[in-house]
Structures are given as C-alpha cells and as structure tokens.
Design a protein that fits this description.
By secondary structure, the protein is α/β, with parallel strands linked by helices. It has 15 helices and nine strands. The protein has one domain: Glycosidases (TIM Barrel), CATH 3.20.20.80. The chain is 40% helix and 13% strand. Strands 1-2-3-4-5-6-8-9 form an eight-stranded parallel β-barrel, surrounded by six helices. The structure holds ligand G3I.
C-alpha cells in the first residue's frame, strides 16, 4: 500500500471530485470509485452504508468512531484499500491515535509539523466525519527536546503557545479536544490526586486550569474534555481514581473553568471484573454538572484469556455488549470511539508489555474488525447495543 506523507492538492481535488460524485451516485444507488467497496465477502457486504456502525449509532443519537493513523489512508480515488474504506464507512468521528500529540507535532521548540493532521482533516471532510483532538496536555509523548528546554520560567508560555497554535489552527473544526489527559494518579499520594507529571512540577497544580482556559480562547466551539483511564471498574483502585477525577471536575466547574465533557478511555480486560454501578453513578454525577461523556478509547485486552481466536472473539464481544449496555442508556453519553478499527493496527499488538503479550504468542483481537477487515463478533455486539439505544434518541445537548 502506498503511504504518502501528505495529501497533495491534486490528490485532494481528485478525491473531492470523486467524493461529491460518489454522493450523487449513491443517491442513485450506484457505487462510485471513492465509495467502491473492497472485494466483498458476504460478511463484509452486510456492514457498509445503512448497516454500518455510524448509521446505527446515529439512529440512537450517538457518534461512532475510532482512532486512526492518517499515514495509512490511501487517498487515490479508485482505491480498494480496506483500512481507508472501513474507516470511511464505519466512523462518524475520528481521533488521531498519535498524530496530534506533542511528540508528533513538535519536532523542535520553535517548529510545528502539521502535515499528518491536515491530511486527517482533509479525509474527514471528504467523508463528512467529525474530529476529536487528542491531546493538548499530557505527561507522555513529550518531544525529546522538552526535558532540556522546559523550565519553571518558560513552561507556562510553552503550554499556552502550543495550545494557541494547535487548537487555534483547527478552531471551529473540532468536535471536542482532550485538553488534559490522564492528570490523576492516586499512587502519587497528593490530596488533590494529581499525577507528579512534568507539567505539575514546572507550573504547579494550576496547569490544568491554564490548559482549559487557554483552549477555550483558542477554540470557542470545541467541547473541552478531561480524558482518563482506569476509572471504569468498581475495584478499590479504580473507584478511588474515579473519585479523584470527579473532584477535579467539580473543582474546575466550581471555579468557572470551561469544561464540557469527560472522556472515559475504556481500555477493558476480557476476563477482568466488569464495569457497574460506580461508573453509572459517576456518569450521572457528571451529568448534574451539565457535562457530556464520551467513550474515547474502547478496546478489550485478551492477553490473559486462554483459548482459541473464537474464544477470544466471544469474550471480547461479551464485554462490548455488557459495557455499552450499561453506558448507552445514560443520556449524556454521546460518542463511542474504539482505539483503532481493525486488529491489523492496534497498540495492544505493538506494545510488548506483560499486560499486552499473550503467553501463547497469538495476536490480540480487541476491535470490531479482524486483521482481514472482516467484522468480528464485537462489531455485531456494538451495533446491537446502538440499536438497543434507539428509543433513547439523544437529539439535543444536555
Ligand atoms: O513513530 C515512531 C517510529 O518512528 C519509531 O521507529 C518507533 C520505534 O519504537 O516508534 C514510533 O513511535 C511509537 C508510536 O506509538 C507510533 O507507533 C512510539 O514509540 C509508541 O510509544 C507510541 O505508542 C502510542 C502510545 O499511546 C504512546 O503515545 C500508541 O501507539 C497509542 O495507541 C497510545 O495511545 C494511548 C492514548 O494516547 C492515551 N490513552 C492510552 C492509549 C494506549 O496507551
């Protein structure tokens, strides 16, 4: 597959022409080049268009989407590339898995590299998709130059300039920004629950407020989101972390800091405990503050699940079914994004950690499409969960 580094003007014009042609032909029931399906098996053909995740989610008033790698999009008009096709067909909202992080955007303290993000926006525009921004302030994936360049004197300006330049560039075109990512870490022992991150050390606890207030100035349209992981379950550790996240959000809200949503990452385990009443009551507490909730990074880790691919698929689908069944009835839950679309590209098969590598050496199958872009049992569990939420159509903001 060709992996172009950016969308050229000519490619964009050709793709745009094919896209609008595609829309017209689709109305006439004819498949165009851009909308052309890869060679379809019966499995594949029953999940496009009206049968897609995005269409079923829309009927329930939800956005459905996934994390993407913009370099993988094949933008040639007649492309049959399954990655490009599946993302275009299934998602109404996209998030960059890595392309909008500091390490991707900031090759040096004074320069920005936007080409992959521009490519993502071009692709989303062609396909009528919204975009989540991930992320503006995180303790991970800071560029190599950061440690030797950032000081207590310049950190405030580094953070605010980054937010102005990045969120400002795409202002008005972003559904929601993960303004601050993963700021709570209870084991660090602080009473406010904040993680001992570079930002905390350089700026102090007010860095969270500074990030949100700056993001609001840079883009007054995007819903400003706090995003975190390990807040889904009712284990003592996750309950404690969820409690600290809620306190942080309440503090921000009480001080009039602009915050509109909470992202629950939802990296779940196939054979771990299930989410339950604690998460439900957290979502309701968040609703009383007028905030939306997005499921931002859903996938199911099967590293500790013995058995065949079929056993994995069935356990993964069970977790999708139970989890979405629990969360989607909550009226402030507005979007469901998986962390990737197909098992061919998942961080769970890239990361070589004790908690990602299976003892039998088999690859994980955490997503709604397998490595051949055939829908898995998880796809149908998701679609059924969207259908079950149809009677709850969430048409207006809370
Ligand atoms: O791009 C470089 C490549 O040039 C280099 O040769 C290669 C060598 O290791 O590394 C490549 O970068 C990797 C990057 O993913 C792209 O594949 C980084 O090492 C690797 O650390 C990075 O991992 C990402 C991780 O965040 C850290 O940023 C994962 O893909 C991504 O899925 C993961 O996403 C996070 C969310 O942002 C926040 N929530 C948790 C989630 C999963 O960890």
């Amino acid at each position: 597959m060709r992996v172009p580094s950016q969308l050229t003007r000519r490619e964009f014009a050709r793709a745009a022409a094919m896209s609008s042609l595609g829309a017209g032909l689709a109305i006439a029931g004819i498949s165009s080049g851009w909308a052309r399906k890869p060679k379809n098996t019966p499995e594949k053909s029953r999940v496009d268009g009206p049968l897609s995740l995005k269409t079923h989610a829309a009927a329930a008033g939800l956005l459905a989407g996934c994390a993407v790698v913009p370099e993988l999009f094949d933008l040639t008009p007649a492309s049959n590339d399954p990655y490009t096709h599946t993302v275009a067909q299934q998602a109404s909202i996209l998030v960059a898995e890595n392309a909008m992080k500091w390490s991707s955007l900031r090759p040096s303290p004074t320069t920005y590299e936007f080409s992959n993000v521009d490519r993502l926006f071009g692709f989303a525009q062609l396909n009528g998709q919204q975009i989540r921004g991930h992320n503006l302030c995180w303790h991970e994936q800071l560029p190599a130059w950061f440690a030797s360049t950032a000081t207590k004197e310049n950190a405030h300006s580094l953070l605010t300039q980054h937010i102005f330049n990045v969120a400002g560039r795409y202002a008005g075109r972003v559904h929601s920004w993960d303004v601050v990512n993963e700021a709570i870490h209870v084991p660090d022992g602080r009473s406010d629950g904040l993680r001992k991150s570079p930002w905390l050390g350089l700026i102090g606890p007010e860095y969270v407020e500074i990030a949100f207030a700056t993001a609001a100035q840079a883009d007054s349209k995007a819903r400003l989101t706090y995003n975190d992981y390990d807040i889904e379950l009712d284990t003592p550790e996750q309950s404690a972390k969820r409690g600290q996240v809620l306190m942080l959000i309440r503090r921000l809200h009480a001080r009039g800091i602009p915050i509109h949503a909470v992202g629950i990452q939802s990296h779940l385990q196939a054979n771990g405990p299930r989410a339950g009443a604690g998460l439900q009551s957290f979502i309701r507490d968040v609703a009383t503050l007028g905030l939306e909730v997005y499921i931002t990074e859903l996938d199911i880790n099967t590293h500790a699940l013995p058995g065949s691919p079929e056993v994995q698929d069935s356990a993964v689908a069970d977790v999708y079914r139970q989890y979405l069944g629990l969360l989607l009835p909550e009226p402030n839950v507005r979007a469901v994004l998986t962390w990737g679309i197909s098992d061919a590209h998942t961080w769970l098969n890239q990361s070589k950690q004790l908690w990602t590598v299976r003892p039998d050496g088999a690859r994980q199958r955490p997503l709604p499409f397998d490595e051949n872009y055939t829908p898995t049992a998880a796809f149908f569990a998701m679609r059924d969960a969207f259908d079950a939420g149809r009677h709850l159509v969430k048409s207006s903001a809370i």
